[in-house]
Amino acid sequence: MKVLVAVKRVVDYNVKIRVKADGTGVDTGNVKFTMNPFDETAVEEAVRLKEAGKATEIVVVSMGPQQAQDTIRTALAMGADRGILVGSDTELQPLAVAKLLKAIVAKEQPALIIVGKQAIDDDSNQTGQMLAALLGWPQGTFASKLAIDGERAEVTREIDGGLETIALALPAVVTVDLRLNEPRYASLPNIMKAKKKPIDALTPSDLGVDVTPRLITLKVEEPSRRKAGVKVANVAELVSKLKNEAKVI
Amino acid sequence: MSVLVIAEHDNAVLKTATLNTVSAARQLGGDIHVLVAGHNARPVADAAAKIDGVAKVLFADDAIYEHDLAEPLSLLITAVGKGYQAILSPATAGGKNVMPRVAALLDVAQVSDICAIVSPDTFVRPIYAGNALATVQSKDALKVITVRATSFEAAKAEGGQASVEAIAAGENPGRATFVGQQISKSERPELTAAQIIVSGGRGMGSLENFKLLETLADKLGGAVGATRAAVDAGFVPNDLQIGQTGKIVAPELYIAVAISGAIQHLAGMKDSKIIVAINKDEEAPIFQVADYGLVADLFQALPELATELSK
Ligand SMILES: Cc1cc2nc3c(=O)[nH]c(=O)nc-3n(C[C@H](O)[C@H](O)[C@H](O)COP(=O)(O)OP(=O)(O)OC[C@H]3O[C@@H](n4cnc5c(N)ncnc54)[C@H](O)[C@@H]3O)c2cc1C
Ligand SMILES: Nc1ncnc2c1ncn2[C@@H]1O[C@H](COP(=O)(O)O)[C@@H](O)[C@H]1O
């Protein structure tokens, strides 16, 4: 079974981002970029499937600027076999990413696609579902458990009320939550080995996909800040403030 | 302009997030229709018909909609939704699961988790864990939108007199099947609709210690929430997680206990009206957003709080 994993290069989750003064976007100069945390979980799951003898090959795909190659290398160091970089300097929105992935799926014919549930920069939470729709495949979103059994995937999903388990006939798309696993750190030998693993470079036009953004960002601004509050000396003062000042209890 | 709202429900009860979504739909203008897809879900359709401002309820009652399976549901919403200018769903786990599928089938972008409507084609949505707000304009003729419920008032649940029109079920590709579920049972109010939330972090230390929070929540008639770290540690189930990648809440009162205040957590609760932080570390970032901060050990503060509230 071939597994395809999509990994996005994003601003590291520890970075406190700043909005550009002219309101055109977020300042991404001189900030640390890493693999979207959910995608690390996706790669880890694929590698575990391979270690368990269920996956035969892991192909990782990333789309965006040339530097996304580093993100692919990270995945290769974790244990993926080869990479595909779809280079683009235009902003790639989820529908465009899903269409590009669909074109890659047509060439690669994977039985399972694993993506993150959400990219922590745009917070869209769309791509996996869109890809499943375009392919006409079933989807298992927000997975915290995944079991592959022959032609079937059983996915435990995190939903608002608790957990739900569904069975998917392969091929299928799974989007993962962080609780699915604990991603490994790549060892130095594996980082070295990853440098020799192949990465194919493609463009959206190679894949015949129109990636023109459908959503135009008119402006980006900082949310209003909460005003600083006060420290209370003890529990009695806290309760008194909540009762008499804030009047919330 | 006419707008289709997708009802969120469990086949018995209409979830309040639907009411907030109807309010968002009203801001777009035009007739509002609500789609109820479920199984033996007549009470939900009847409840939807009573929402103030709803003109019509479309009701598809079929076993294939008993569970929120995205495949049959997205085909139905796509078929019904084609004739509208906008399709709105609350940004719940259910909405997030199905709406991008609908958008892709219609070949339009989805606008996720909107928190304000500027005009019928322009919306505000949080990005980067709510550290920035983007105003985006949709170029698509049909808008597919998920709505952040806490950003819109709930429409009145009573007062409307919409007709309920039964519609035929669509196709079920049948490649996904429901196996089972573990739904957390609680007498407490639903997290996203609660007026008061008592929330615990990794510093709670254990499942047993979380009982201290439950006691407090019950005294206040509130709900219990948690950070991702507390869920990951196995103190509480996943459905209590609040944050960028969990639930978004905005109660009147949010009491954060042993929570450091990471941006990913703040993303889910910083619109609360009053925030209280109890933390033994006076440098904890949570104090920067708290209206009232108490530097204290929870094992001392929580029992004291329970006693003080009983006075
Ligand atoms: C991609 C991604 C998504 C994420 N999404 C979310 C999300 O949706 N929601 C979320 O919450 N987090 C999320 N996180 C995790 C987030 O970054 C933080 O790690 C998490 O919120 C920390 O949880 P915490 O405050 O409970 O734990 P900690 O940061 O460990 O803080 C524990 C606090 O407890 C205090 N404490 C300890 N003992 C006591 C005591 N006896 N009395 C009083 N105080 C005490 C400590 O001083 C400390 O401040 C996400 C992270 C990533 C990478
Ligand atoms: N530019 C991209 N390159 C590779 N994968 C992506 C890209 N954008 C989104 N994805 C995948 O889709 C998931 C969800 O992203 P989103 O829908 O943007 O929240 C991510 O976790 C990735 O797995």
UniProtKB/TrEMBL annotation, chain A:
Transmembrane segments: none annotated. One of its GO terms (molecular function) is electron transfer activity. Its cofactor is AMP. It comes from Telmatospirillum siberiense. The keyword Magnesium does not apply. GO terms for biological process: carboxylic acid catabolic process. Keywords: Electron transport, Transport. The lineage of its organism: Bacteria, Pseudomonadati, Pseudomonadota, Alphaproteobacteria, Rhodospirillales. Heterodimer of an alpha and a beta subunit. SMART domains: ETF. Residues 23-211 form the Electron transfer flavoprotein alpha/beta-subunit N-terminal domain. The electron transfer flavoprotein serves as a specific electron acceptor for other dehydrogenases. It transfers the electrons to the main respiratory chain via ETF-ubiquinone oxidoreductase (ETF dehydrogenase). This is Electron transfer flavoprotein subunit beta. It holds the Pfam family ETF. Belongs to the ETF beta-subunit/FixA family. CDD domains: ETF_beta.
From TrEMBL, chain B:
Pfam families: ETF, ETF_alpha. SUPFAM superfamilies: Adenine nucleotide alpha hydrolases-like, DHS-like NAD/FAD-binding domain. Residues 3-182 form the Electron transfer flavoprotein alpha/beta-subunit N-terminal domain. FAD binds at R202, T227, R228, Q241, I242, G243, Q244, T245, N279. Keywords: Electron transport, FAD, Flavoprotein, Transport. Belongs to the ETF alpha-subunit/FixB family. This is Electron transfer flavoprotein subunit alpha. It comes from Telmatospirillum siberiense.
